[in-house]
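TODO from last week: model AMP-fatty acid ligase.
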Amino acid sequence: MTQTVSYISLSELLSQNRAPESIVCFDDNSEITWQTFNDDLSQLVNLLSSSHFQRVAICTQDSCLFSVAFLACAVSKKHIILPGNYQPCALAELSEHFDCLLVDDSIGEVDVSNVRNIQTLLDSNPKAQKPLTDNLAPIDLAAIQLTLFTSGSSGTPKAIDKTLEHLDIETAQLDKNWGDLLKGNRVHSTVSHQHIYGLLFRILWPLCSGVPFARHNLEYPEQILSHANKQSVLISSPALLKRLKHETKPAQLAGVFSSGGPLPTESAHQALNLLGHFPIEVFGSTETGGIAFRQQQSAQTPWQLFDCIEASLNSENCIKLLSPYIDKNNWYQTADECEMVSSNQFILKGRTDRVIKIEEKRVSLVEVEKRLEQLPWVSECVVIPFEEPERLILASVLVLSDQGQAKLATMSKGKFWLMLRSELRKWLEPIAIPRKYRVVDEIPLNSQGKRLTSHIEQLVKS
């Protein structure tokens, strides 16, 4: 069923007269109507409004339950916290940032107080007596705080504070650029709503546009192709689009978005041949929101700034921004080296700091080093990105502690590395765990005590 609703601001989303039978989200077997969505939302608002919790974290893989919880927090004037990592130890480490953690069944047991399963709350509490939309005033978005997390240069997840007004401005810009592409279609996704790209593109923009979105992610290339049709818009990333190269059967989509990291030109052309479109790539970050976009016909296709953003370069040719998604009155300096080709177009050269992207996930090399050095077997280490023929991985050069040397003497190197990786898995996502290791007596340093990167790279290659 095609449904068309005019775009409406997040502030008035719950005050609009939306048809009760209109579809909000769907999975392979069912659809959630606005009536059901609103009933669940009303129930959760009643629970949250009467609770003493002020900072509420949400971590789910179910995008429908996430949306209910997110909007319920907004209506209840809670500070919304979105951890970027599903791992239980990593969630527990962020517990100082929240009073309550809302989860779904996909999240393992987290060692913090006040963990609540959203579906259990909905099932065990009576339905709200009146619908939420009765006489609901617009939400004051500027007053609702949102904290997202990204990899910081200090090695611990960095809290990025925004308001829902920032997100609302950006969602309106997305609709201005591509509203016609979304209208009358459905949204499928391969990316997490816990991060800003997924939050904006797969949750808030569809919600505000009245466009149904998928409840669960597509995880494999064959799932993309089996779900593809001319009424589907795909919100994806280079990590998955690159994996389409082994597929041969084309399937037409209404459109494709990609963000989170650089998309190889070859992958852009593969997407054109398989899915019918060059992906619309969006360049940005948690801190900045979206900065620019392009459809890459060649590697030199420039990035086009969103028309509400101004940009210039500093003395190191790193782009700085004047953006309503950050602070409309103050310039924001990035670590992204660029070449301006016009006042609103640029070519991206690369990052100048120690936070890198591997398959669209930002990985702090400092954090990986810190996690390794926390282990009793490691005295000192350095972690670097390493290009393998098929992918980018992390490699580590280690100085073992006495305990580590004793442990290694009792087992094979292979088992020792597996033990390290198993320990790191408690803290790091799989993509951030080094795959290559070298043991040395000391980390190569120059006379100023700085790491000799070229020597370290040679050690990894040897």
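Done. The mean pLDDT is 90.
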